[in-house]
């Protein structure tokens, strides 16, 4: 009689220790058993439904998963709002952080950010920045130049309004050559002297 009782006590103790160890592991991750912000929560799996405005973050460990309600999704995840539940979804495999599944903000090592994508190398016509792991266009914009004189059909007077223009040069990064970079310009409306005064302006008005 004493032997079966001892065996039963050993089994009960083993089950208790297993449950205690599992509970410690869940608390250690900060996920299982943490019901802050939850609407529905269990000790085994944590949150399954969150309060409004919070995101449900599912942490997977082997075949088990634990839910936690968070204000902001952790690094490597992005928040997506739904009609019934807001969830944290994992970024793409090459993204360190992202705005959405298709738009990366920062890339993992050995990848470079270019227009929201993480690429193994920067495309032709761009420069590789190792510190930020970004691809930058080779042509860098310089400052805007001064506005040109206000003219209308090549004349500086004789009309109510004319146009003045300024240009902005773009050079290749680290190089003086600008032939392959586009020259930018912009124009704006400007007032002219409608009656031509005497002298030089009259000659310009023809």
UniProtKB/TrEMBL annotation:
Sample GO molecular function, one term: heparin binding
Signal peptide: 1-19
Biological process terms in GO annotation: nail development; positive regulation of Wnt signaling pathway; Wnt signaling pathway
Glycoprotein is among the record's keywords: yes
Keywords, in A-Z order: Disulfide bond, Glycoprotein, Heparin-binding, Secreted, Sensory transduction, Signal, Wnt signaling pathway
Cellular component, GO, one term: extracellular region
Subcellular location: Secreted
Gene3D superfamilies per the UniProt record, alphabetical: Hormone Receptor, Insulin-like Growth Factor Receptor 1, Chain A, domain 2, Thrombospondin type-1 (TSP1) repeat
UniProt domain R-spondin Fu-CRD: residue ranges: 35-135
UniProt-listed Pfam families: Furin-like_2 (PF15913)
Keyword ATP-binding: no
Cited InterPro entries: Furin_repeat, Growth_fac_rcpt_cys_sf, R-spondin, Rspo_Fu-CRD_dom, TSP1_rpt, TSP1_rpt_sf
PROSITE patterns membership: TSP1
Protein family (similarity comment): Belongs to the R-spondin family.
Protein name: R-spondin 4
Organism per entry: Marmota marmota marmota (Alpine marmot)
Lineage: Eukaryota, Metazoa, Chordata, Craniata, Vertebrata
């Amino acid at each position: 009689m004493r032997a079966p009782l001892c065996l039963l006590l050993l089994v009960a103790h083993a089950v208790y220790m297993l449950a205690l160890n599992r509970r410690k592991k869940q608390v250690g991750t900060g996920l299982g058993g943490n019901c802050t912000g939850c609407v529905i929560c269990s000790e085994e799996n944590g949150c399954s439904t969150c309060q409004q405005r919070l995101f449900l973050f599912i942490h997977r460990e082997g075949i088990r998963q634990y839910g936690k309600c968070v204000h902001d999704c952790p690094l490597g995840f992005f928040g997506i709002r739904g009609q019934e539940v807001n969830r944290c979804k994992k970024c793409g495999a090459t993204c360190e952080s992202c705005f959405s599944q298709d738009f990366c903000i920062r890339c993992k090592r050995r990848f470079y950010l270019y227009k929201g994508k993480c690429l193994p190398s920067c495309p032709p016509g761009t420069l590789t920045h190792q510190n930020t792991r970004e691809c930058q266009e080779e042509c860098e914009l310089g400052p805007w130049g001064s506005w040109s004189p206000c003219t209308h059909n090549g004349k500086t007077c004789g009309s109510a309004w004319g146009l003045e223009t300024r240009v902005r040069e773009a050079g290749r990064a680290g190089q003086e050559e600008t032939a392959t970079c586009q020259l930018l310009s912009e124009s704006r409306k400007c007032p002219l002297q409608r009656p031509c005064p005497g002298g030089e302006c009259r000659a310009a008005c023809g």
